[in-house]
Amino acid sequence: KCSAKISELTSGVLSGNLESIAFVDALGKPGSGVTTGNFLWLGDYEMCGKGVLGNETIGGIYQNCLVTGYVFAGGFPLTLTWTGCSPPECQNTTDLQGVLK
After folding, report:
1. Distance of CA 8 to the CA centre of its chain
2. Mean of the per-residue pLDDT values for the chain?
3. Other C-beta atoms within 10 Å of 20: how many?
4. How does residue 37 score in pLDDT terms, banded at 50, 70 and 90?
5. Could you give the C-alpha distances from 70 to 43, 45, 46, 95, 98, in angstroms and in order?
6. Alpha carbon 86 to chain centroid distance?
7. Fewest CB atoms less than 10 Å from the CB: which of 6, 23, 55, 83?
């Protein structure tokens, strides 16, 4: 359910789906300084659960989430911390980590 919903949301951006646009807008995105170690990709905490993402008619309210993972650069593991909104179909961090792998 989770991966299907994430796929639906990402493809819905191009068709102008408001739920999809709000979801992508609230996601954490790389900020400046990635090449110098800025791996905190922070989303917009306030957007999650409000407006379109807080409307019960879409099947539930989105929740803030935190996902931590590792990337390897030059043979060294670097911690990546990402925040964003989790759709109702992705109820726990394990669901989201599985989608992001």
Report:
1. 13
2. 81
3. 18
4. confident
5. 18, 23, 26, 17, 13
6. 6
7. 55
